[in-house]
Amino acid sequence: MSTEAKGRYTDTLYVEQPVEQALNELGDLVDTKEPQLVKWGLCREEPSSGNKVLQDADGTTLAYQSEIYLHALTTAVPINSLIKVFNEAGEEVLHGKVLRYKKYKHYAKVWV
């Protein structure tokens, strides 16, 4: 990643990986492992001023609280994933669920 991109993306995105599940003796589906946060890459989190609304092509309306900008080469973030964003000091600045992901020519964007 270029030094220009490192200066632009000062936060770090972590994505919670799905846990393994199995049936217990009562037949209920239960987690067999604790969920793990995986470092996804550098990002820039920008909170919206109030809850903004985004209209999907299929007419679905999404209310989101933040936009996360990622480098174009970052792996796509799955929809409905739980994420956390930490600043340079290691403080959590955002915790939420991915509502939408879009890759553009020079960057990618996630709505939370």
Textual characterization of the structure:
It is a single chain. By secondary structure, the protein is mostly beta strands. The chain has a single domain, classed as Thrombin, subunit H. Helix content is 5%, strand content 57%. The protein has 1 helix and 9 strands; from the N terminus they run αβββββββββ. It has one helix at residues 3-8, and strands at 11-17, 21-23, 29-31, 36-55, 61-71, 82-86, 92-97, 100-103, 107-111. A 7-stranded antiparallel β-sheet has the order 7-6-1-4-5-9-8. A two-stranded antiparallel sheet has the order 2-3. It is globular and about 50 Å long. The model has no long low-confidence stretch (mean pLDDT 85).
Task: Show the helix and strand layout.
Elements: H1 3-8, E1 11-17, E2 21-23, E3 29-31, E4 36-55, E5 61-71, E6 82-86, E7 92-97, E8 100-103, E9 107-111
Antiparallel strand pairs: 1-4, 1-6, 2-3, 4-5, 5-9, 6-7, 8-9
